[in-house]
Amino acid sequence: MLLPFAAASGWYAAVKQLRPKQLGGSVNNAEYFQGLNYLLNEQTDKAIGVFVELLDVDDETVEIHLALGTLFRQRGEVEKSIRLHQNLIARPELKQAVRMDVLNELGLDYMRAGLLDRAENIFLELEKDRQHTPVATKQLLSIYQQEKEWPKAIEYASKLETVTGVKQPIILSHLNCEVAQRQLLKQDSSSAKNYIKKAIKIDPLSIRASVMLAQLLMKDLDFKSALKILEGMIDKDERFVPVYLHLTLTCFDKLNKPKQKLKFLRGLYERVSGRVVSKAFIDALIEYEEPGTVTDFLTQQLHASPDMTLLKPYVAVRKNSSDYDELNFIHQVLQEIEEAVISFQCQHCGFTSVELHWNCPSCQCWGESMPVHT
Fold first, then answer.
1. Composition of the chain by helix, strand, coil, percent to 5
2. What does pTM read for this prediction?
3. What pairs with residue 372 in β-bridges?
C-alpha cells in the first residue's frame, strides 16, 4: 500500500513546481486527496483508480504509472498491470527511451503471467537496445531455462557473460549437463560425453558433471578411470560424498580391490561425518575383518559417541554371544527403525527435498541444493 502513496506524494510535489500549461490544466486537489484517503483506509483498488485518472502520461508522470503497474504485478493482479502497460505503449507521445522502459515492464508482466512466448518476443526486441541489453539477456536466459530450451539457454548465458563482464561457470556447467542428459536419453553417449567434458572444463568443481562422467565410464566398463574421478571428487566438496559413494564402492568391487576399498573407507570415515559414510565403513569392517576386531572398534566408538548407526552393527556382531536372546531382540527392533534418508536443502531459499535437484524448483538457482541429515 505504501508504494502508490509514495508515488502519488512524489507526483504531487512535482506538479506543484510545474506551470499549469505544462500539465494541460490545473491539478484536481480534491480527487488527489480522495485517493490518499482511500490509501489510508486500505482501499488500494479505489486509490489506484483515482491516481490513474489523475495522471496524464508525460515525461513527469510516466514513472508513477510504471510504479502503479509494478504494484499490480507484485499483488498478483497481472491482467491490470498488462492493461496499464499496453495503454502506455499505445500513447504516440511517448519518447522511444520511455517506450522501451514500458516495454520492459510489459515483458515482466507476461513472464509473471506465464505467457513466455509473448515475453520472449518483447525481450528479443529490447535486446537490440543497448541500454536494455543486459536485462533483456538475463530475462531471455530465464525464459529458455523455463522452457528447457538448453542450447538457447547456453547461448544466452554466454551472452550474459559478454554484456555484464561477469562469468557464469555454474549456470553454464549445469546447462551443458542438461544437454548431456538429453543426449543420453537419445542413446548418444559420445555426444553426451562431449557436453559433460565441456561442463567440467567450464566449472572444474562441478560435482554433477564429474558424477555423470564417472557413470558413463562405468557403463563402458572402464572402472579404473571412473574410480580415479570419484576419488578425486572428495577434495571438491565433501558434502556430496553420500551422493556418489555407492558408485565408488562399486568400482572397488568390480576391480576386486577389497583392501583398497577398506583403506579408502577408513580414511573417509575419519574425514567425513554422516550416517551414510559410517554405515559403509562398518559394513566393510564386518565383511573383511574378524568379529573381535569389529567389536573392539565399535565398542570404542560407542563409548566416545553413542549413535544408532554404530549400535545396530554392534548388536549384529554380538548376536552369537551368551546374551543372544536379549541382543537378538534389540537387533530386531533396530532393524525396524527406518533407515536414514539423504535429504537436500537449497542454500539460497531453504527449499528441502528427498531428491537432489541441481536446479532448485523454488528459486531456480543452480547448484545450491546440498545434502543434509546424511
1. 70, 5, 25
2. 0.75
3. 343
% of the chain surpassing 90 pLDDT: 44
- Provide the pLDDT for residue 61: 66
Structural contact between residues 181 and 214, judged by C-beta atoms closer than 8 angstroms: no
Cell triple for residue 369? 541444493
Longest dimension (CA), the chain: 104
Contact 36, 5 (CB under 8 A): yes
User: Distance (Å, rounded) from C-alpha 307 to C-alpha 299?
Assistant: 11
Strand order from edge to edge, sheet including 352-353:
352-353, 343-346, 369-372
With vertex at residue 97, the alpha carbon angle to CA 93 and CA 101, rounded to the nearest 5 degrees, is 100
Cell of 111: 513472464
DSSP state of 366: B
Q: DSSP letter string over 157-183?
A: HHHHHHHH----HHHHHHHHHHHHHHH
Beta carbons of 291 and 316 less than 8 angstroms apart: no
76 Ramachandran zone, left/alpha/beta (phi>0; psi -120 to 50): left
